[in-house]
Amino acid sequence: MGASCQCKGVRACALCEHDRVASHRLNVSRIGRAFVFCPKCKLCIELDPQNGELGASSFRLEGIEVAENAITEDHEKFLVDAIESAPWKDSQSGRLKQDFGPKVNFKKRKVKCDSFLGFPAYMDVVQMSFSRIPGLNDFVPVELCNLKYSPERGSCIDPHFDDSWLWGERLVTLNLLGQTVLTFSQAQDFDDLTQKQTHYDAHGCGSEQGSEALGTRNKCQPMDVVHVLLPRRSLVTVARAARSEWHHSILREHVTETRLAMTCRELSETFLDVNNAESEQGKILLEKARVNPEL
After folding, report:
1. Which residue, 92, 152, 193, 286, could crosslink 11 as a Cys pair with Cβ 3.0–4.6 Å?
2. Helix, strand or coil for residue 294?
3. How many domains does the chain contain in total?
4. CA–CA distance, 62 with 43 (Å, rounded to integer)
């Protein structure tokens, strides 16, 4: 294992890849049917593996929103320069990270806020981009995690759920430098988590003439995945079924150029509800989650 590798358990990067890990990682060879997400009609449409054309089967996966050109080229350059001027820490699966937020032990459900000094000054630009996106004008981030992906390191992130005890309904990521693909897979396809099978109705793409169904009732099969293209400077929101019923991941095969991901998370209702004991910590976090000009 390389000196800068932080992989543990079944996690792996290009520095520490071995056979035991490869059998656990989701990759293109393990995928059954692949669907692509259309950001306009919000349908997941089956991709024909033979010719790469869109097929007749489709379904809706609620909770995915992709906004292209969420920031300008000038703002992207400003953000990248500011991020790269700060030190990176090695993370798992070949990624580098910068964290701004509380220290959390999710297993023991403990939150420490002492070391959280607020957000770096460039967060103003990020929050300005939120205000322009429908449905995000009330989004109040309490954590920022910058992740750097590079093909040389074999960067990826395995299928997972984000925590829902501390973090709220919406996960918001700003995609910088390079485009990639966010992949959704069903939780029951993996040994570590189980999730009941979900059924979806097939719908047609909307048009001025109305919608035509592309198929009858569609049942997702084992190892079905949904690929969501994230263009450079786009912003993706993950919520509802996409957040709570499907794993999300970045496949190594989809990291073909350096990419910076700025992911922001909001507080869960548990920490916002005044009737819960956690609300006091929620108040502290909201107070600290502001731009700190010194960072």
Report:
1. 92
2. coil
3. 1
4. 9
Burial label for 105, CB within 10 Å (0-12, 13-18, 19+), is exposed
Burial 254-275 (b: 16+ CB within 10 A, else e): bbeebbbbbbbbbbbebbbeee
In a domain? residue 85? yes
Q: Which of 37-51, 146-160, 239-253 has the weakest average pLDDT?
A: 37-51
User: Which pLDDT tens digit goes with each residue over 197-244?
Assistant: 322 222 233 332 222 333 323 467 778 899 999 999 999 999 999 999
Q: Kindly state whether residue 53 falls inside one of the protein's structural domains.
A: no
Token couple for 181: 């693909």
Environment class of 129 (CB within 10 Å of its CB; exposed 0-12, middle 13-18, buried 19+): buried
Angle of CA points 137, 76, 240, to nearest 5°: 40
What pLDDT is attached to residue 203?
28
Task: For residue 56, give the H/E element and its range.
Answer: strand 54-59
Which range marks the domain in which residue 134 is found? 63-195+226-288
CATH code at position 257: 2.60.120.590
